[in-house]
Sequence to fold (242 residues):
Amino acid sequence: MKALLLVAHGSRRKQSNDEVDTLAKKLKNNCGEQYGIVNSAFLELAEVLIPDGIEQCITEGASSIVILPYFLNSGRHVVEDIPSIINSCAVQHPNINISLAPHLGASDLMMDLLISSAVNA
Amino acid sequence: MKALLLVAHGSRRKQSNDEVDTLAKKLKNNCGEQYGIVNSAFLELAEVLIPDGIEQCITEGASSIVILPYFLNSGRHVVEDIPSIINSCAVQHPNINISLAPHLGASDLMMDLLISSAVNA
Fold:
């Protein structure tokens, strides 16, 4: 079974983290054919952290896990921190295919979204 | 003249900040009819900071400035820090209409973008 793990930065503000959990639930409703599991995890400041999120996917029966970084820019978190954590987890689970997708901001659709927000501001 | 100021968090990684500046330039090409000025600024870690970005818009002739937070979640930066900075700047410029648009993650299009990224991951 294929799992998607949506990874956000994490905030001290609970409502911000709840938004991410809600997005993951909505994603599950829209990508259920491709992903039998869709969960969320956080880099820092909030539970569950990425390694625990990966463990949770495996516990739920994932044989492969796609990590989707919910980040806008290719900052240090996206380029260094998240890959480093994923690599450590992958070493611990050699039988699970753990892959890292491009961060959200790399999407070709981002410019359309930005234009829409600017025009409607 | 109306200005749009795209405000991102800012990163220690120059390339990440350059992405934001590039987005602002592309936005200018797409929203030029609505905004005579489109600039970028950062909350922290990178130049120009928000107050300087606002000053820059005014120097370029802005009579009104829309601040568009390039953030995904309604964390502390979006809910507290950016509004606080904008309010301070507004007090200093009572003749300039400075308004704060919803953060990017609040867009209805975000779910479509997320689904697209997940399906293509």
About this structure: The two ends of chain B are 42 Å apart (CA to CA). The longest strand of chain B covers residues 2-8.
